[in-house]
Amino acid sequence: MSTAGAAVDTAARFRKIEDTVRATHGKPGAAYWIALAVSASVFAFGAWAYSLIVRTGLHWTGLRRPGMWGNLITDFVFWVGIAHSGTLISAILFLFRARFRTAVYRVSEMMTVFAVLTAGLYPVLHLGRPWFAYWLFPYPNERSLWVNFRSPLIWDVFAVSTYLTVSAIFLVVGMAPDFAALRDRAEGWRRRLYATLSFGWRGTDEQWRHYTRAYLFFAAFATPLVVSVHSVVSWDFAASVLPGWHSTLFPPYFVAGAILSGVAMVITILVPLRKAFHLEDLITQRHVDMLARLVMLTSAIITYSYATEILLSLPQPATDPERSTFIYRMTGPYAPLFWAMVTFNCVGPLLLYWKKVRESAAALLTVCVAVNVGMWLERFNIIVTSLAHDRLPFDWRVYTPTWVEWAITFGAFGWFFMLFLIGLKIFPSVSISEMKEEAAHEAHQAALEAGHAH
Amino acid sequence: MRTEPGILATFDEPAAAARAIRVLRERGIRDLHAGLPAPFPEVVAALAKPRSAIDYVTLPGALLGLVLGVLFPVLTSLSWPLVTGGKEIVSLPAFVVIIFEVTVLFGSIANLIAVTVRSFLGGGTGAFPRGERFNADRIGLFAAGGGEEAERVCREAGAREVRRVA
């Protein structure tokens, strides 16, 4: 290939990247509308179910002493976990210069923001008087009362709200050059919207000079934030004295679990997305393969965490509450959920060792959906079984979620996927500018190998 | 919008644009501005512009967050000194999370303000004549004050199009 030929190819490749991403904003087909209608309906049903609690109280839930945290807090922890991989993929892998992140980080970032928006609902949803949720925030009031900064629940408020703010800034700032590229060929409301969201971006070297530096700082801020947020969530439990919760293992265990569930969710979304929107040229099998390996790695960490918890408690005396709780988890009324969790989170991902499984969309999707179910069960196991089997045997009681709680749980999935489906039609689902950078790099490498470049 | 004369060249390939920039700089033409669909490292390196000073806004923002993150829980705890959980009224270990989160929040907001002012609003104006944009598939290079020599350099480097702008 001549240098001129390579140049033409580079420009053509740039156009193709832009056209492929632009095509995702085209007129939606029937499948899209069906998916959106299903998501919106499930969300609406969940919202209506929640309205029962608002109107007549928490008796609609299965919450009774000692199990005062159930599905709703399980959902909160689950969605915070889902929110983690976006920043992991976009920020941490950016700092480590992992090139495979380029094609997949935008979807992950969108997922992060929508998942935090979902998670943020739950601390409010599980309140008896949700209209007083603003009491969680410190604000000047006539009685000079302030929130208790020594409580992990207030740490949560700060951690989750900071995470939402920083993730949203990171997402919107990261999309500005792409919005500018889309703006230049858009019409009507899209042009106006993209013109606003591109913040006057023209792609000058002066803009890139400041932008790339700022982006580096956003990544540097977001990276410890990823670790902190789920560590803080884990302290909601670990800072108490309840057997099954009071463990120094919790922060790394929760962070690894969050990454496992988040990456599994990214794959769950990416596999159908790349097929439905014909993104196979941009999000290649290699990208999916790398994510599948990340699932395997984090699954190994999770398996180690499960084993550590159990192996440290079993040698304790028979009267030890910690030991009692773990035996209860493994053999009590919640045992099927515990063993399902182990199967989905520890055994299932081992299948990804085989390349054939990683390359089969159906097999990969099955493993990742199972991991998502397994991770939801993990949170249920931690929260519910520990509360149901506390230090006071006369207090023990099995918690069963009611249909209202299940409706809210599934309603959150409806809310998340509804936001995601709408987002796909507005936001560029792959980073146009970074893909162009990658394409230019590949073209230059190819030219170097062919001995044409200077 | 830029009004001074010069030459505006467009390139398909970042490497070609970088070659042109290097030669132009060697020949003393240093008022160069590029328009890029992506931050191509070779072009940015060839322009040899100083590193962005955005740090001078982001770091103080983070430090302000650090100070507020310490003062806020300490002062509010002292204003309502109620012992909870057997902890000290001023329990700095328990406040570390708040201090960290507020530091990150203020640092990020300061970073956002800095990138908005310096990049989004400030960096786009005046660099190119007649509102030229290069967000799609070409790389633009404007050599302010460049004449025939600049034109020749750009063509030799592989520019797709070179034109003079008045």
List the SSEs and their pairings.
The complex is a heterodimer of chains A (454) and B (166).
Chain A: H1 3-23, H2 30-56, H3 71-82, H4 84-95, H5 105-119, H6 122-125, H7 152-183, H8 188-197, H9 205-238, H10 250-276, H11 285-313, H12 321-331, H13 335-347, H14 355-359, H15 361-388, H16 403-426, H17 432-450
Helix pairs in contact in A: 1-17, 2-16, 3-5, 3-10, 3-15, 4-5, 4-9, 4-10, 5-7, 5-16, 7-8, 7-9, 9-10, 10-11, 10-15, 12-13, 13-15
Chain B: E1 6-11, H1 14-26, E2 32-35, H2 41-47, H3 55-79, H4 92-121, E3 139-144, H5 148-157, E4 161-165
Helix pairs in contact in B: 1-2, 1-5, 3-4
Protein architecture, described:
The complex is a heterodimer of chains A (454) and B (166). Chain A has 454 residues and is mainly α. Chain A has one domain. Helix content of chain A is 71%, strand content 0%. Chain A contains 17 helices and no strands. Chain A has helices spanning 3-23, 30-56, 71-82, 84-95, 105-119, 122-125, 152-183, 188-197, 205-238, 250-276, 285-313, 321-331, 335-347, 355-359, 361-388, 403-426, 432-450. In chain A, helix 4 (84-95) runs antiparallel to helix 5 and helix 5 (105-119) runs antiparallel to helix 16 (403-426). Chain B starts with 5 loop residues before the first strand and ends with a strand. Chain B has two domains: 6-46 and 129-165, Alpha-Beta Plaits, CATH 3.30.70; 55-121, no CATH class. Chain B has helices at 14-26, 41-47, 55-79, 92-121, 148-157, and strands spanning 6-11, 32-35, 139-144, 161-165. Chain B is 51% helix and 13% strand. In chain B, strands 2-3-1-4 form a four-stranded antiparallel sheet, with helices on one face. Chain B is α+β, with helices and mostly antiparallel strands and 166 residues long.
